[in-house]
Amino acid sequence: MLGWAREFLSQPWPFLTLAVLAGVSLLVHRPLAVRLGWARWPTLGMLLSAAAIAALTLPPAPTGSGVPLAPGVSVSGPDGQVFAACLRSLTDPAVLWSGLVTVDSLGERVGNVAMFVPLAFCTVLAVHRPALATGLLVLAPAGVEVAQAVLGVGRECVGYDWVNNATGALIGAVGGGVVRLLWRRFAPSPTGVS
Q1: What percent of the chain has pLDDT above 90?
Q2: How many whole angstroms separate alpha carbon 176 and alpha carbon 122?
Q3: How far apart are CA 57 and CA 130, in angstroms?
Q4: Residue spans of beta strands (DSSP E) within 10-82
């Protein structure tokens, strides 16, 4: 996995994607938070986390990643068969279960879990409806997997990645929920009267 990560990060696309999306996040977090009545700093954390996820999951895969691409082509575009295989993977109980119990490629699994923890943590702190946000965050990784299949950038759409990402989203949401509850309980009242 480290060789793949080194090769992936040596390409310009992940850094460029992160730089552009982080810049957009810095520009829009305050107006977005004000408009929606969200907490400002958790909104920034949420947007920067989403930018990092996009930078890690959407640029083309390294050429030596083992994911088949057309010869000499780094981006092949949408393919109906790949999309159908993706949907089968995302709905196959055996594939989904393997995301919970398999100990193979532990580094990749930990990375997939950890990727969504900060996003969910910050989102739960930022928004007014943390339960709804958590539900959407559990489904969001399936959207990432489908996007990888539809974009045809040499990424593999697999259901166990969704399970691992969704597990990270749940961990982050629980952590954010605990902080939210503790803040409500122990934060000084705005009027100075308890």
Answers
A1: 49
A2: 7
A3: 25
A4: none
Would you give the DSSP letter of residue 188?
P
Q: Is the dihedral of CA 27, 29, 33, 39 positive or negative?
A: negative
Enter the pTM of the model: 0.83
Interatomic CA distance for residues 73 and 118, integer angstroms: 34
Short-list 192, 175, 172, 191, CA closest to 183? 175
Q: Which of 135, 129, 132, 121 is nearest to 179 (CA)?
A: 121
Radius of gyration of the CA atoms of the chain, in A: 19
The H or E element that residue 120 is part of is helix 106-126
- Residue 113's alpha-carbon distances to 49, 57, 59, 86, 102, in angstroms, are 13, 13, 19, 20, 13
How do residues 35-69 score in pLDDT, each as one tens digit?
999 999 999 999 999 999 999 988 887 665 544 44
